[in-house]
């Protein structure tokens, strides 16, 4: 009770002795907003100090004395206070108590105005007399009584002036504020009610009252939002049609989504904007409209709007479905801003999709996911599939599939090759090992002497051994792989253990890669031709740089178009061979797959001493050491690796050479000298064109001694009857290569028919040259029809072997 009585005494002191103004102002302290209360307007500092002393006993806020430089009065300042509600409550309490005390009958006579109050001096206890000093202070007008307001066609500026006189507010009027107004009231209004009606009148007329410090600006609505009134917290907003700016935090809904929703609910001149980093809305307009918008925001901004759902898939791969949904959302930009905040995530381990967004969007996505997660019509829903290959090797395809699986699956991918042991071929014949070692190899495996460098048996055995450990892509210690790709060599199949959608991707890749490979027929003719005859051939066939000179057929290679057939070359070369001007070494032909190596090797193996060890038999060293020998190929070799390019183009990697033993070497020597001739090149030609390789020249020296018998042997005089001729001959090794693309079975059949008919025509020609014999007719090959060859081991085939002097011609199989 003592505190209440003391507080009332302070209010009575404020009301009866000093000005009763209690002003609230917003200030910035250390970059943060704060609030200050300014009490009274004292002409003397002592009066302000007395009030400060009395207030300090009941108010815990800091209290100071302010004396602005541009004013003569002193003010008691309370604050700063961080909480606006605390400051406004204290202001209302001080102002209300001061107003009630000032207007009560005990404190003010009925006929006395509130503009005159007395300031009493302290009472002297000795004399019990008081010296009264009367001071007239300017005070804000107080409401006397309610009045009726009825105006018709009144000038708006005159009305603003009257409201300023009654309410005590200071107005700054924009020059554009003009016009007449009308106000009709049926009940009396107080000064506060009058001010709210005044604000509504401004709104109807297209104007707004914008507070700015100690004044209020009257401006058109279009400029009201640019003046930016002081932001106020929504705890105690202004009333009625007062202008204000509100900062409204949004908790559950993105603020950008609310802007297009609130915009139609606001006047044209008002503004609403979103601040994304802190998810806030900034509203500028009249207090009544702002309060309505705040209520709408609270109803919309509820926790039930956003949520998280997890959808587990049974058949489809979560990553595939998620990508489909994201593409669908990108393809619908006009659906609205709600799609922007809809998030889709994938959990590979559980094969589930995580959805985050509004309830409506989540429901739409769940329905779409259920439609996409259906059983496949092709039976690919099983997590384990066995794929049989037709053309590719399973061991070669597994690493490719593992890379594709790793790119489409975020989990671990494991591979295993050779789970079932496959026995190796036993190549005990050295000659067969020569052929098998080069199949599928590269040119780096060819030694300068023409021999093939094969890997040791132990290396081959280890390479063919089953890889049961697996080539897993995950690191050691990681979890078990969720995708496994296994190659089974015996059945040439691939076993895939993965989600159904990933199996579909891998099967699609397999179907595109496991196709019938193109083949090439490579025809070759290898011959040694005299240099003079080579020049004549250059004139007849032409070369890349033909100018009419025989020497223009340059060493190296030339490409002749497909109009010239290999038969024309064979005819010319065979004609030279009959004249002993050419030596046909080989006419091979071979069919090879695209991008695989074709190897032709014709020759023999020669033993060459490699290492000598001392003979320590019996504890003594003898003069006959042990010698180890290596087998070296001395042969004519031709290695070709074709690669089919766009259209009918072919790239050929060619390694051709002819290795011989130097005739000057001792025949029984363990270390003979080898003559090496080799051409390694790459060319690009069209199918059916001919590549001519030349330039491998051998010099041969000869001496012919012609003499008359008996007379030429006479010592001394015999030279008269002798004629010595020294021959110097250069022979060029030439190789003619023509590749032909066999893309289909029909192409292979046509080539086979052609080769078969060539042999049959040769037999018919031979038959015509022989005396008539009825048995000879049975030796002729029958006409080839429907791509069927004669039955093996028939009498026709057996009798053909008795024909002599027939060339060896290869057929395409």
Automatic annotation (TrEMBL):
The keyword Coiled coil is assigned to this record: no
GO cellular component, as recorded: cell outer membrane; type II protein secretion system complex
Stretch forming the signal peptide: 1-19
Entries under Pfam families matching the protein: Secretin (PF00263), Secretin_N (PF03958), type_II_gspD_N0 (PF21305)
InterPro entries: Bact_Secretion_Sys_Channel, GspD-like_N0, GspD/PilQ, NolW-like, NolW-like_sf, SPOR-like_dom, SPOR-like_sf, T2SS/T3SS_dom
Keywords, comma-separated and alphabetical: Membrane, Signal, Transmembrane, Transport
Biased composition (Low complexity): 432-473
Biased composition (Polar residues): 100-127
Keyword Transmembrane tagged: yes
GO-annotated biological processes: protein secretion
Stated family: Belongs to the bacterial secretin family.
Full protein name: General secretion pathway protein D
Gene: lspD
């Amino acid at each position: 009770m003592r505190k209440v009585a003391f507080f009332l005494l302070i209010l009575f002191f404020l009301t009866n002795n000093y000005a009763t103004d209690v002003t609230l102002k917003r200030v910035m302290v250390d970059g943060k907003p704060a609030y200050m209360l300014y009490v009274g307007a004292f002409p003397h500092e002592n009066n302000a100090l007395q009030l400060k002393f009395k207030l300090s006993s009941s108010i815990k806020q800091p209290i100071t004395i302010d004396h602005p430089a541009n004013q003569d009065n002193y003010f008691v300042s309370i604050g700063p206070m961080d909480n606006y509600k605390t400051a406004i409550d204290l202001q209302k309490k001080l102002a209300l108590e001061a107003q009630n005390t000032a207007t009560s009958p005990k404190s003010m006579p009925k006929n006395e105005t509130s503009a005159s109050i007395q300031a009493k001096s302290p009472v002297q206890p000795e004399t019990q007399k008081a010296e009264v000093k009367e001071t007239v202070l300017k005070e804000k007008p107080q409401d006397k009584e309610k009045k009726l307001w009825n105006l018709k066609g009144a000038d708006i500026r005159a009305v603003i002036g009257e409201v300023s006189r009654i309410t005590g507010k200071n107005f700054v009027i924009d020059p554009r504020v003009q016009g007449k107004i009308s106000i009709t009231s049926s009940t009396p209004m107080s000064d506060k009610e009058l001010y709210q009606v005044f604000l509504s009148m401004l709104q109807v007329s297209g104007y707004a009252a914008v507070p700015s410090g100690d004044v209020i600006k009257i401006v058109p609505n279009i400029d009201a939002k640019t003046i930016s009134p002081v932001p106020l917290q929504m705890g105690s907003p202004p009333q009625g049609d007062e202008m204000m700016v509100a900062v409204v935090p949004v908790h559950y809904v993105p603020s950008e989504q609310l802007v297009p929703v609130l915009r139609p609910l606001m006047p044209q001149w008002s503004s609403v904007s979103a601040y994304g980093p802190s998810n806030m809305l900034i509203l500028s307009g009249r207090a009544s409209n702002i309060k309505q918008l705040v209520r709408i925001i609270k109803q919309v901004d509820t926790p039930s709007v956003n949520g998280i759902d997890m959808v587990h898939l049974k058949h489809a791969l979560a990553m595939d479905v998620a990508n489909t949904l994201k593409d669908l959302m990108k393809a619908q930009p006009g659906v609205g801003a709600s799609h922007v905040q809809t998030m889709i995530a994938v959990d590979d381990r559980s094969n589930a999709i995580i959805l985050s967004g509004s309830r409506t969007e989540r429901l739409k996505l769940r329905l779409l996911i259920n439609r996409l997660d259906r059983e496949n019509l092709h039976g690919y829903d099983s997590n384990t599939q066995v794929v049989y290959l037709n053309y590719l090797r399973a061991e070669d395809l597994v690493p490719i599939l593992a890379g594709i699986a790793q790119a489409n699956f975020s989990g671990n991918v494991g591979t295993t090759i050779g789970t079932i042991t496959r026995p190796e071929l036993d190549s005990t014949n050295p000659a067969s090992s020569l052929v098998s070692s080069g199949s599928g190899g590269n040119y780096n495996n060819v030694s300068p002497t023409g021999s093939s460098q094969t890997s040791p048996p132990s290396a081959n055995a280890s390479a063919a051994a089953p890889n049961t450990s697996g080539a897993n892509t995950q690191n050691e210690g990681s979890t078990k792989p969720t995708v496994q790709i296994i190659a089974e060599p015996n059945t040439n199949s691939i076993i895939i253990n993965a989600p159904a959608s990933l199996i579909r991707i891998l099967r699609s890749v397999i179907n595109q890669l496991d196709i019938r490979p193109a083949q090439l027929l490579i025809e070759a003719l290898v011959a040694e031709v005299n240099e003079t005859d080579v020049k004549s051939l250059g004139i007849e066939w032409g070369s890349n740089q033909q100018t009419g000179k025989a020497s223009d057929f340059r060493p190296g290679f030339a490409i002749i178009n497909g109009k010239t057939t290999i038969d024309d070359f064979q005819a010319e070369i065979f004609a030279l061979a009959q004249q002993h001007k050419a030596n046909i070494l080989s006419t091979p032909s071979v069919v090879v797959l695209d991008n695989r190596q074709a190897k032709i090797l014709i020759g023999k193996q020669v033993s060459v001493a490699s290492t000598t060890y001392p003979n320590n038999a019996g504890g003594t060293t003898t003069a006959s050491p042990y010698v180890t020998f290596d087998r070296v190929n001395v042969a004519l070799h031709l290695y070709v690796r074709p690669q089919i390019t766009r259209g009918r183009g072919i790239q050929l990697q060619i390694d051709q050479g002819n290795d011989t033993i130097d005739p000057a070497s001792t025949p029984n020597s363990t270390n003979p000298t080898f003559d090496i001739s080799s051409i390694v090149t790459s060319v690009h030609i069209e199918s059916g064109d001919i590549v001519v390789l030349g330039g491998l020249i051998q010099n041969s020296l000869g001496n012919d001694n012609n003499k008359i018998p008996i007379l030429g042997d006479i010592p001394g005089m015999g030279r008269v009857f002798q004629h010595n001729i020294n021959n110097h001959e250069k022979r060029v090794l030439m190789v003619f290569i023509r590749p032909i693309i066999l893309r289909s079975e029909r192409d292979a059949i046509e080539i086979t028919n052609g080769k078969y008919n060539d042999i049959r025509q040769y037999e018919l020609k031979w038959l015509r040259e022989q005396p008539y014999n009825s048995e000879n007719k049975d030796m002729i090959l029958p006409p080839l029809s429907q791509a069927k060859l004669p039955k093996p081991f028939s009498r026709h085939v057996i009798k053909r072997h008795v024909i002599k002097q027939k060339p060896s011609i290869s057929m395409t199989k």
